[in-house]
Amino acid sequence: MIIKPGEWLFISTMKCATNTLYKALTEPEVGGLWAGGKNFHALPRAYVAGKKGTSVCLRLAPLHWTCCRNPYSRAVSIWASTCLNKENTERYDAKRWIQKQGGDPADFADFARHVLARPDAKLRVPFLWRDQCSWQDQFIHDVVLKVENIEAEIAELLGLELELPQENTSPHADWKSYYIDPEIREIVREWGWADFKRFEYEP
């Protein structure tokens, strides 16, 4: 989370321009602070005293905002950062799980079949593969901006003219190329159905 005390709180949603926004919002001219660690002084006392897992439901600023992304695009990005990024050692269990099912972690279709379509998958950190609604419903948020139009929507919401080059881009092709197989499109459609409805993306 990034907070500008007394004004707004940005709550990240995984694989929704998080690194790009963290960098831009903490620039000195913007004035955002990391909402934690040495910046606890910037947060209400209730947050500091709150128990782990409950403090996220408190209001920390007049405006709470977050982002969403087309679920088809987001699914591909989650797969790439999980299975193609060799530096991401935290998610090795997903690769091993796919292999145990006879699949190839480097194949998005197998990631969809064995992770996104399998809520029973034995994974150490299953929350990483949640849809956006279940992720965001943990928090208080007033506004959800779309990654696809993020610069214009931030300008309208906060009055900030930001240039947002992509940070930490995952190594994959255009997301549309992964949905030639109707089976895979249907798996991701079902996985992200709540997101398609709430955020008004075309399923």
Compact description:
With 203 residues, the chain is of the alpha/beta class. It has helices at 18-25, 45-49, 71-84, 92-100, 108-116, 132-136, 150-158, 182-191, 193-199, and strands at 2-4, 8-10, 33-34, 63-68, 143-146.
**Rg, Cα atoms, Å:** 18 Å
H and E string: EEHEHEHHHHEHHH
Spatial ordering of strands, largest sheet: 3-1-2-4-5
Percent helix, as a range, is 25-40%
Question: Alpha-carbon distance between the termini?
Answer: 29 Å
Helix count equals 9
How many E strands? Answer: 5
User: What structural class do the secondary elements suggest?
Assistant: alpha/beta
Main sheet: strands, sense, barrel: 5 strands, mixed
pLDDT < 50 stretches: 48-55
Describe this structure as you would to a colleague.
- With about 200 residues, the chain is of the alpha/beta class.
- It has 2 domains: about 1-70 and about 130-160; about 70-130 and about 170-200, no CATH class.
- Helices cover about 35% and strands about 10% of the residues.
- The protein contains 9 helices and 5 strands, in the order ββαβαβααααβααα.
- The chain has a 5-stranded mixed β-sheet with strand order 3-1-2-4-5, covered by helices on one side.
- A hairpin with a 3-residue loop joins β1 (about 1-5) and β2 (about 10).
- The radius of gyration is 18 Å and the shape is elongated.
- The protein starts with a strand and ends with a helix.
- Mean pLDDT is about 85; it is low at about 50-55.
